[in-house]
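Researcher: I'd like a structural prediction for the single chain below. Treat it as a standalone chain; there are no partners to consider.
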Amino acid sequence: MASSFRDCEAWRAEGLQLSTTSNEACKLYDAILSQYVKWTNDETVGGFEGCMSALQTADPYFVMGHVIITGLELVGTASSPRLNERLAGAVRRTVELADSQDISPRERLHVKAVELFSHGNFPKACDVWEDILVDHPTDMLALKFAHDGYFYLGAQTRMRDSVARVLPHWKPHIPLYSYLKGLYSFGLLETHFYDQAEKVALEGLSVTPGDAWAVHSVAHVYEMTAELDKGLKFMESREKDWQVSDVLASHNYWHWALYFIEKGQYEAALQIYDSQVFRRCKATESMLDTVDASSMLCRLEMEGVCTKDRWRELLQVTRPHSDDHVTLFNDLHFLMVSLGAKESGTSQRLLEGLRELAKEPGENQQHQLAGTVGVPMCQALTEYDQGNYSGATELLYPLRYRMADIGGSDAQRDIFNQLLIHAAMKSEKKHHQKLGRCLLVERDAARPNSPLTGRLMQRALALHI
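Model: Treating it as a single chain, here is the predicted structure.
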């Protein structure tokens, strides 16, 4: 393993001692952490899988090795420990190893957080990661896991403040230092500090041009401010830098395509969908890639674009996850696909499964939220698909200020705002049509000069409300 990765002594010198005597295990842990932060499978070190396999060989009893391997699978949300016995067993094994060894309090907290997350208790897991950061503000694994946890909770302010609290403790010589700029920028933009978010992200990119998360943050800024030409130019000019971050590349291409959808350039958007978004989604089956593909088809369909057989192709990726119910955000996107593919049995199974879990959610935060937010939102998608636009409006409108709770970003959740507007305008009730127009006026005030809003405004005016 390359000398640039930290061995036992280097971790100890940073105040982040790891309970293993294997320098190789320490370096492999660092290699996995680095790939996680950089959103890339670094083939020069064997990629994620190669490093994980080598780490387990180097020290099979290394608790933090189990924490990072199992934790990464959990935060990927592609598998449910409720259904996947191998993953549930990996969590138990991590806990058992921790109980049988004399490890540091910090490492013990990491184990506790992973166990909580595996039970769906995202808020408490984030609390534990924050406890770690109080005493160890340069623990990047705790910071990144918390960042992802807040993302799934839609906890935008906490996502921002979590990074703000530790920033002064990081110095340029600490590995991965520049990547904090991208993390902080994302929290800033999700709390609508757009100018500051852009400034901070560009500071990070001046040091590390290949920081795909910082690029992604700037892409969000231009999306939320409807600076579409600026966004297109930015993404194209930096494509060679960020496309090597294969774990995030599809998502960045998705942002690129959103600019085209906003501008009404649907063929350009479809070309990105076919050549990048779906191709990568099919290859990786990652949940981020999958929800992006789902959302993109739904947005195009709302714009009146024929998506042909693309729904059925995407269904092959989403259908195996119909019973997972790891996050409501995932569930809603899987439902978009089964509805789009006219696969009523899969749609019904997903909705019924979610209803059942909502009855006895236990400590699972997503299942607790299912009854009041998740199921009604899923039902609204179903009503819309069946042409019951007034029913979809009545389900979605009361939830519009709770939608952040399902997780994701403002840009990702905007699909539900668009869906509400379309449902209201298509409803046979005059009150709903007026509501749709009100929502468009509000949208125009928040995001001036949006061509998409302009097109919908023209449609609303044609209703002669």
